[in-house]
Design goal:
Layout (H helix, E strand, L loop, with lengths): L5 E6 L7 E7 L5 H6 L3 H10 L2 E5 L7 H19 L4 E10 L6 E12 L5 H14 L4 E5 L3 E6 L9 E9 L6 E5 L2 E6 L1
Antiparallel strand pairs: 1-2, 3-5, 3-6, 4-5, 4-9, 6-7, 7-8, 8-10, 9-10
Length: 189
């Protein structure tokens, strides 16, 4: 792969062909790194403007390899449905076991998606479909000031939709939270 560097161009003479190029930086980000760049402040601004959703394909009862394959497929599904890539976040969630009904906290690879120009109703519907496809207990959507956990399978949540409060940067929640670049965010009152 060919590396590209930022150069400083200085005209050294009167003619249009006499330029001197100087290497300024060799630690420039690749296009892929640049496109994946996101931060807590960006997620906060997107949640304030149009709304976001957070979902995952990981399940506690699946192997690491299976979860990786499911996450990769979810990422492709998100690109297909929403026309853009998701923001990767690390999540933790209290997951219910189908057979025993026991709850345990699991760490998972999650994705945050912004609503963009999609209608609120269609956005929620598409996010719920993806949650069902990947057997999730619930998905989180925020299209107003407060967020809602939507049940996507029976046995996941007690109610169909549960209000979880407002976006809290640097907030912690015992039921679940997300992290981007080491900075935590959650929802609560």
């Amino acid at each position: 792969m060919k590396e590209w560097f930022l150069v400083e161009c200085m005209q050294t003479g009167r003619g249009g062909k006499n330029y001197k190029y100087k290497k300024v930086s060799s630690s420039m980000k690749t296009y892929q790194e640049f496109m994946q760049e996101s931060s807590l402040s960006r997620i906060k601004s997107k949640s304030d403007k149009s709304g976001i959703a957070t979902l995952s394909a990981d399940r506690g009862n699946k192997s690491r390899k299976e979860n990786q394959a499911r996450s990769k497929q979810l990422q492709k599904d998100i690109r297909g449905k929403f026309g853009r890539g998701p923001t990767k976040v690390k999540g933790s969630y209290l997951e219910k076991d189908k057979e025993t009904g026991k709850e345990r906290k699991v760490k998972e690879k999650s994705y945050a998606i912004d609503r963009g120009k999609m209608s609120k109703k269609k956005f929620k519907k598409e996010v719920k479909k993806l949650g069902k496809k990947y057997g999730q207990d619930s998905v989180l959507t925020q299209t107003k000031k407060t967020a809602t956990l939507h049940r996507t399978r029976k046995g996941g949540l007690d109610k169909k939709g549960e209000n979880v409060g407002r976006f809290k940067p640097q907030g912690k929640n015992p039921y679940g939270q997300s992290q981007i670049k080491g900075k935590t965010f959650s929802y609560g009152d």
